[in-house]
Each structure stands twice: as structure tokens, then as C-alpha cells.
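lol so apparently i was supposed to do this last week
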Amino acid sequence: MSKKKNQNKKVSKFANPFVEKKKPKFLELKDKLLSIYNTVNLETTCPGHCVCCSIACPQMNYSEFLIIVNRVYDKFPKEKRMEILKRSIKYFFSNSLIKPCPLLDGKRCSVYEVRSLSCRCYGLWPEDVYEQRVQRFMEVTGLKKHEIPLNTQCKYVKRVDESKELTKEIIEKMYDDLNSLDAGVGNFTKEQIEKRYNQRTWHDWFMVNVFGEQNLSDLSRFFLAAENQSVLDDFVVQMCKQVDMVGDQVFKRNKHG
Ligand code: SF4
Ligand code: SF4
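anyway here it is w/ iron/sulfur cluster bound
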């Protein structure tokens, strides 16, 4: 068997439980997402060049991830895709709370047109609702408030058109609509949606998409069991090298649409 075929065999053992269920029509899905985002005008005065995306990437729904990853596969050159994958690997296995969004290109969002609802809403939430979200995150993670990245909203960003108020109810309805979309596209059960199984960070989604859920949970167990940080750091370096060798095959195999 040729070296190339051997590499293919190695890659094909990674199962992907999400994309194999149902392949969506991407233009339709993108239109549905845009119509949810356009429930109210979310355009802002944000000048960019700033800090929020350099601190963290918020969670996104599965449908949103599919549209963004399709953009990455279709429009980005190989080097850029590999860079995003390697950053995602590092973040997936990192305990740091500060994880700049892998989709940042310099100081600009490289997928701005299709960014997620949480990205669009940052700085625009009613303050009490944002505080409740932070409190919930504290409960789930056991972290103190000062340890949570972006534990307050940006004070410098305002909506361009505030003629229609952005209320808690409107934001919740938009997330409900995203969940309904996910239920159809990803075949998530009602219980999984209730447990927010369909909402993850970019790097978590991307790692599942490329390597498969089972492989990632095996790797996570390995990381939790390991005692020596330098062993883990070496492992991540080796994994990134593997990605350099087989990465484009992995990308092609997982390309959507
Ligand atoms: S939302 Fe605020 S912190 Fe983020 S880029 Fe815009 S102005 Fe900067
Ligand atoms: S997807 Fe874009 S807007 Fe959202 S956190 Fe990443 S760089 Fe920022």
C-alpha cells in the first residue's frame, strides 16, 4: 500500500457523529440564521481593534458552527486553516481561561459576516440578564467572578439603531429559534438541547468535527490522568505536527456541502 493510502487509512478511523447524521443545505441554513439575527437590528458602533475577541470566543450553536466552518473550508487558504486547527488543539487541551478566538485575523474577525449570535450580542445584553449569565457560569464552573473572562460587558459598544429595544425576551426567542434549527440539522434530542449540548466554543466544535467525539473524550481522559504538564505540552506539539502531515486530508474528509 502506498504511503498516501496509509495516511488515508489512519485518518478514516476518526468518526464524526455530527456531520454524518444529516448534511444541511448551506445556503438555506445561512438564510435561516441571518433571518434570526435580523429579528432586530444588531449593528453596532464597535470599532474592532479591541480586546473582547482577544480574551475569549463565546459558545455558538451547532448550526452557527456549521456555517462558520463551511466558510473556513471554502474560503481560507490551507495555511490559515491549519493555523486555526492548531490553535483549536492548543485551546482544547489548555486550562488557561484566556483563549483568544482562533478566528481572529490580527485584530479583525475573519468570519465577521457569519459570526454567532453571542458575538453579535456582546455589549448589547440588558445588564441584569448578562449578570445572570455570568452567575450561571460561576455555578457551573465553580469559578469566582473575577476569574471569568468577559465577566462584564463592553461599555464602548452601542447599537446603531435603538428604535426597537433589545429585550431579554427577544434575545431568548432568538436562542430558542437557534435551538430549533439545531434540532433539525443535527438531530439533537430535546434533552440534549435542554442540557445545551448543542452549544460549545469554536475550538470544542472544531475538534469534534475534525477528530470525532469518541477520540476526543479518550484524549480528554488521558489529559486528566496525566500528572506531568510537560508530557502534555509535548503531546500537543506532536499532535500539531501530525496535523501538519495529514491535515489537508482531514479537512477534505470533513468538508460540508
Ligand atoms: S465589543 Fe467592545 S471590546 Fe469588543 S472589539 Fe468592540 S469595542 Fe472593543
Ligand atoms: S467569531 Fe469573530 S466576533 Fe466572534 S469571538 Fe471570534 S473573532 Fe470575535
